[in-house]
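Sequence in, structure out. First:
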Amino acid sequence: MGQMVEFASNGNTARGYLATPERGSGPGVIVVQEWWGLDSGIKEMADRLAAAGFVALAPDLYHGELAGHTEMDKAGELMQSLPPDRAGRDMSGAVDYLVASDATTGDGIGVMGFCMGGLLTFVLAALRPDAVKAAVPFYGFPQGEDQPDYSAITAVIRGHMAEQDDFFPPAAAKELEARLQSMGVDCELTVYEGSGHAFMAPHNALGTQDQELYDRIWPQATGFLHEQLG
């Protein structure tokens, strides 16, 4: 079980859920929430990362607000009303917290995000290339006109995308992969045949959870983070 902690966020204070491994230290990983908020599912993913040997911090980007797993309209409203600059500051502050922590070991910080958090994983990698060395986005990526400066990214990216996804179409994921690779970014975005959006989610809010796929991907994702971070 983790605990809520506070950290500095560009002159303000932000909060997040911190989970640490049993041995008390490990490489640091930022966990970025889905559109529901900092809910039980994201806390569980942070706990699972801690069980895999990481110091995992999930910043509360909605500052205490949550949408229930049947409240898709509310989740959409919370996501649309999230100030991008504040989200960037809070994620960056979370990175600084992990970098400064005595519990954090290894070379650089990793980022893992889901849905909206997958999109923000790319944003944070571009925002903090000085610290973010590995990124694992799940079924989410930037689209449209408001995209980060991908040329700033130094992290290695290994993303996991759904084939049946109206939110983040697989064709667009492969287009982004090709774009990043053409810029020299080490990026692979894998689309899993037959999968639906949120296939990793512990809460199974969309009815698309795929345990077999989770069992296959999770060791790959954590192994990749250990390879990159220590």
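Second:
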Amino acid sequence: MEIDLNDLNAFLMVARAKGFRDGARASGGSASGLSEAVRRLETQLGVRLFHRTTRSVVPTEAGQRLLERLGPALTEVQAALDVVDGFRSRPAGTLRINVPVSAARLALPAIVPPFLAAYPEIRLEVLVDDSFVDVLAAGCDAGIRYEERLEKDMIAVPIGPRVQRFATAASPAYLDRCGRPQHPRDLLGHACLRGRFPSGAMPPWEFEREGEVVRIDPSGPLLVQFGAATDLAVDAAIAGSGIIYLFEDWLQPEFDNGRLEPILEPWWQRFSGPFLYYSGRRLLPAPLRAFVDFIKSSGEHL
């Protein structure tokens, strides 16, 4: 059976966009063209790949199975083509990376502008996602993760700050009103602004001093999902709603302007910075190779 690669790409685009119109916008084509390609693919395969209604387009069981296997396979095909493209004088093409919000905010701003200036023919797509998805299955070339989140059989390259700390802080007004904690366990008597991951996991607050590690699970008036709502927690802390626990680098501007006051700083726990990671079992696309080389050569200056 000979299947047109363009029809497979059309199916993948519609499945990821969850619709023909959104798929057309993402691909730069037309909804009718995608619809015809999917219809042609379904005819050749002899199975329906989507449940179609006026409001939604959802993969059937067969479509979902195809999607799970097709994404990594087409990514590998594109990688092979990019390797050939790497023989051009300048790397070109699209580089897609999946990153958590913290990396997009704290690691990439110092890296992306000079990289784009050095490689004007590369188009960088940054997908911000705190769900820690499988980057290859999501159609990405690489991801940024912290050490405890790195997957097996992946190559990891340090990116961004190499040592970071989690900081605790509150507004001076809150601390004047409620007192300044002297030990992490004092936080159990304070209003604490918590965060959780999209998975529902809500990590404890960890502190460390002279080998002593303290983990607490405080409560408070606000719970946000890490990511887009993190700044809401910061704003609430500035407004005096309670104590926040977040990356020191994220809060540093508020320390500098005095809107937040650091607390328990001798207890702030250090951890290693993020890593760019990618599969060691696939051909390296030219845009990714350029990005990796750029990170390695300039990392010490970032």
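Remark: The two ends are 51 Å apart (CA to CA).
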